[in-house]
Amino acid sequence: MNRLAAAIDLNTPGNYLHWGVIQISLANLVVIVLMIVVFLLALFLPFPGRRRDK
Amino acid sequence: MTATPIEPTAESGGWTGALRRRLVRTLPPDKLLPDRQPSYVSSWIYVFGVLTIAALGWVLISGTWLALAGPVWWHTSAVGHFVNSMHLWGVELFFFFMVIHLWGKFFMAAWRGRRALTWITGAVAFLGSIGTAFTGYLVQTNFDSQWISTQAKDGLNSVGVGAWFNVLNTGQMLLWHVLLLPLVLGVLVVAHVLLVRRHGVVPPFGAESDEKVSGDDVD
Question: A50 lies in a domain?
């Protein structure tokens, strides 16, 4: 939870994650994960008022 | 001797008439402002292009306000800080929506059906947006912009453009950020939208036959 708060609070020094040669800020990782989630939702959620006819 | 009047024909009208006929032929009014779209457009993934443009509009409005008030206004005014925050978060949303739009179009191979130029203008606009955002970091007039500019100058000097594109010159970067790059971006976005109108929205795989039935441009 603290890590999530740190990612959102932009008035503190950045929180960075490391996996070997990969280094990414937690804020950027949160944004990328959010984009993937929204992308998948856009693909699978039904569009309101969609008609099957042409 | 009397002058014989020239009968107007479909091809008369000088260069303005020729240009008008060319424009109407290229982009007829029903394609420029369509009131119907193919059924496959009823999907959330087709919404992200217009969301990107809406975010860009908000960035332009808040950015114009900031530019008119001056680059240091937001340091001393609560309203200025609010407008600056709207500008920042507008840019965040702009890139958020644009990347999802890019993913959707990439996996749809949106360059199909003679839409290569539509794809290219979108890709160049994406790269231009990154450049515009970078120059925005340089005109914050704070320690952040000072740090970023001193780091960026080495990279730009190493490729030999530092003399013309001097990131340590705040005035020059302000000009690039508020005028030159937005102008280029604006032209690219307008061209991109007009090309989408000209060739129609790209159909999903397997729906190309629907596109032909609906009469969209597949030339």
Answer: no
CATH code for the domain in which residue B149 is found: 1.20.810.10
> In this predicted structure, what is the pLDDT of residue B13?
78
Is A8 a member of any domain?
Answer: yes
Q: Could you report the predicted ipTM of this complex, rounded to two decimals?
A: 0.82
Nearest CA in chain A to B97: A35
Tell me, yes or no, if A10 comes closer than 8 A to chain B by beta carbon. Answer: no
- Sign of the alpha-carbon torsion through B107, B113, B118, B123: positive
Q: Collect all residues of chain B within an 8 Å Cβ-Cβ radius of residue A41.
A: 44
pTM of structure: 0.86
CB B118, CB B199: distance < 8 Å: yes
Residue A41 domain-assigned?
A: no
What is the total count of domains within chain B?
A: 1
Cα–Cα nearest to B192, from B139, B125, B112, B143 = B125
C-alpha to C-alpha distance for B126 and B21, rounded to whole angstroms: 32
Q: Are B205 and B108 in contact (CB under 8 A)?
A: yes
Q: Does residue B210 lie within any of the structural domains?
A: no
Q: What domain range includes position A21?
A: 2-35
CA trace torsion B84, B58, B70, B184 (10° rounding): 130
Question: Is B115 part of a structural domain of the chain?
Answer: yes
pLDDT tens digits, one per residue of B48-72:
999 999 999 999 999 999 999 999 9
User: Cβ of A35 and B214 within 8 Å?
Assistant: no
Task: Pick B134 or A15 by higher pLDDT.
Answer: B134
Range of the domain at B80: 44-203
Structural domains in chain A (count): 1
Backbone phi, psi, residue B64, to 5°: -65, -40
pLDDT tens digits for range B160-173: 999 999 999 999 99
| B164 vs A: CB within 8 A | no
